Amino acid sequence: MSERIALYPGSFDPITRGHLDILQRACLIFDRVFIGVLQNPSKTPLFTTEERVDLIRQSIDADAGVDVGTFDGLTVDYAQTVGAVAIVRGLRVTSDFENEFQMTLMNRRLNPDIHTVFLMTSFSNVFISSSIIKEVFRLGGRIDDAVPPACAEALRRKFAKD
């Protein structure tokens, strides 16, 4: 039997405990999971692509069957490049589903051999998003329980420069 590989794409700006929750459960289903950090020139992330990759690597177990890479362009093309049979997408609330469903249908049209697997985040992570984390931190709120320690420290350094 061949190795079952999945791609977990996103901007991860920064990676949160919600992301890690989805990753952990994807690792239970697939033999290997590639985290694909999207380089999107139309967005201005807080962290550079290299910083996001480094924060992910600091936040995951190196022996967990997880690889981290970067990509630009179509997600299905990158999925095919890494040999993925599936794209993993996390859902927090039902409103996430509509946009994700549209992307899934387009990805299926572009490459019907790559499936999308939706995983619901744990209830304790439903409220967490990278955007909310950055805003709460910027306004002086506590975020340590919502992000890995490396990300909390990186946010402190990043906002100390402002």
Automatic annotation (TrEMBL):
<keyword id="KW-0460">Magnesium</keyword>
<dbReference type="Pfam" id="PF01467">
    <property type="entry name" value="CTP_transf_like"/>
</dbReference>
<protein>
    <recommendedName>
        <fullName>Phosphopantetheine adenylyltransferase</fullName>
        <ecNumber>2.7.7.3</ecNumber>
    </recommendedName>
</protein>
<feature type="binding site">
    <location>
        <position position="75"/>
    </location>
    <ligand>
        <name>substrate</name>
    </ligand>
</feature>
<feature type="binding site">
    <location>
        <position position="19"/>
    </location>
    <ligand>
        <name>ATP</name>
    </ligand>
</feature>
<feature type="binding site">
    <location>
        <begin position="90"/>
        <end position="92"/>
    </location>
    <ligand>
        <name>ATP</name>
    </ligand>
</feature>
<keyword id="KW-0067">ATP-binding</keyword>
<comment type="similarity">
    <text>Belongs to the bacterial CoaD family.</text>
</comment>
<feature type="binding site">
    <location>
        <position position="89"/>
    </location>
    <ligand>
        <name>substrate</name>
    </ligand>
</feature>
<keyword id="KW-0173">Coenzyme A biosynthesis</keyword>
<keyword id="KW-0963">Cytoplasm</keyword>
<feature type="site" description="Transition state stabilizer">
    <location>
        <position position="19"/>
    </location>
</feature>
<dbReference type="GO" id="GO:0005737">
    <property type="term" value="C:cytoplasm"/>
</dbReference>
<keyword id="KW-0547">Nucleotide-binding</keyword>
<comment type="function">
    <text>Reversibly transfers an adenylyl group from ATP to 4'-phosphopantetheine, yielding dephospho-CoA (dPCoA) and pyrophosphate.</text>
</comment>
<dbReference type="InterPro" id="IPR004821">
    <property type="entry name" value="Cyt_trans-like"/>
</dbReference>
<dbReference type="GO" id="GO:0005524">
    <property type="term" value="F:ATP binding"/>
</dbReference>
<dbReference type="InterPro" id="IPR001980">
    <property type="entry name" value="PPAT"/>
</dbReference>
<keyword id="KW-0548">Nucleotidyltransferase</keyword>
<dbReference type="InterPro" id="IPR014729">
    <property type="entry name" value="Rossmann-like_a/b/a_fold"/>
</dbReference>
<feature type="domain" description="Cytidyltransferase-like">
    <location>
        <begin position="7"/>
        <end position="135"/>
    </location>
</feature>
<feature type="binding site">
    <location>
        <position position="11"/>
    </location>
    <ligand>
        <name>substrate</name>
    </ligand>
</feature>
<feature type="binding site">
    <location>
        <begin position="11"/>
        <end position="12"/>
    </location>
    <ligand>
        <name>ATP</name>
    </ligand>
</feature>
<comment type="pathway">
    <text>Cofactor biosynthesis; coenzyme A biosynthesis; CoA from (R)-pantothenate: step 4/5.</text>
</comment>
<comment type="subunit">
    <text>Homohexamer.</text>
</comment>
<keyword id="KW-0808">Transferase</keyword>
<feature type="binding site">
    <location>
        <position position="100"/>
    </location>
    <ligand>
        <name>ATP</name>
    </ligand>
</feature>
<dbReference type="GO" id="GO:0004595">
    <property type="term" value="F:pantetheine-phosphate adenylyltransferase activity"/>
</dbReference>
<feature type="binding site">
    <location>
        <position position="43"/>
    </location>
    <ligand>
        <name>substrate</name>
    </ligand>
</feature>
<feature type="binding site">
    <location>
        <begin position="125"/>
        <end position="131"/>
    </location>
    <ligand>
        <name>ATP</name>
    </ligand>
</feature>
<dbReference type="GO" id="GO:0015937">
    <property type="term" value="P:coenzyme A biosynthetic process"/>
</dbReference>
